[in-house]
Amino acid sequence: MLVLSGCGGDDGMAGVGGAAEISGYPLAGGKAAWEVPWAGEICRSSPTPTKDGKVAVVFQNDKKDPSVCTEVGVVDIEQGKLLWRKQGVDASGTSAMFDEVTIGGGTVAAAGTGASAGWKLDGTPLWKPSDEPCDTVGHAGDETRLVAVRDCGDTDSPRPKVETVDPGTRAVKSTFALPHGTAYVHVVSVDPLVLAAEHGEHSETGARFESDRRLLSAGGRRYPGAGHVTEPSTVDKTP
């Protein structure tokens, strides 16, 4: 079971995804107000709905391998409708596998292992999976912004960077490159841009945050190995 975020206050709805359907429940409580039949289990959903109740989902529906998360769709949790569903297909006709999805600046952006695809909220394709110098491993967004997390290294030596991009064209507006070896980058906030990540020999418990173009440690007591502030020279100061 996967709970899709609700919206609209006490009068709003929340979506709950199961193996065969998505059900909409009033946030104030009570029985399901609607159900949408589902072809495959939901793998992930966008963290929060848009102001008008749209949630992006990644789900299973590959007939050759039902366990693969290849489908992307948008659900209107206020109206109880699956608005559209698509696959991210590369130039060779192969459907990409996705393990995360978000909505930012009116764009639905999905990413997986070495694959990324994007659509407008109405389902119009924006970009398809393709070979890129750096893998897009995740996204974050809000009503006006889209942020992409990319890795330009490999498993043994990750080289992550976080880019604020144009939601429609993916043109890079600003870049924050983290120190080599930083792993598990998570966007805590888009505005201001705040990141959490693991770095160094204490990576199992370490955490760092980026704010105002500075890399800040989270503190040495709770996060061993932390406790200092650095000014990375790799920050692109494009406004």
TrEMBL record:
Residues 201-239 are annotated as: Disordered. SUPFAM superfamilies: Quinoprotein alcohol dehydrogenase-like. InterPro entries: Quinoprotein_ADH-like_sf, WD40/YVTN_repeat-like_dom_sf. Signal peptide: none annotated. Residues 201-215 have a biased composition (Basic and acidic residues). It comes from the Bacteria. This is PQQ-binding-like beta-propeller repeat protein. It comes from Streptomyces spectabilis.
